[in-house]
Write a structure and sequence with these properties.
The chain has one domain. By secondary structure, it is α+β, with helices and mostly antiparallel strands. Strand 1 and strand 2 form a beta hairpin.
Length: 126
Amino acid sequence: MSGHDERGSAVVEFTLVGVLLTALFLALLQLGLALHVRNTLVASAAEGARYAANSDRTPSDGAVITRRLIRDSLADTFASRVSSGFELVGGVPTVYVQVDATLPVVGLLGPARGIRVRGHAVDETP
């Protein structure tokens, strides 16, 4: 075999490897975005629950704070489904704030109810 049989294969190899590495990079970037969105929602829900657990606040106050934090950090679309209330966890009265948001699969687009996070705090009401 002579070296002439593989002439031009480097161009094809470079193109295929380039496409593969670009796809891998974009997938890692998307994973990082999804984790960022999830962590921001968790932190916002927890902060809203802590705020609502104060003795002079209600669960709806915590939901308002959570919506504001999400809007300031991400986008309005992630703050559209925020709920809050009281529940017993291990016999202890707590306040919860729950956020249902889009799971970003392609950019910030994805399934509507992809992520559900909850923040809890011990209720300080006397």
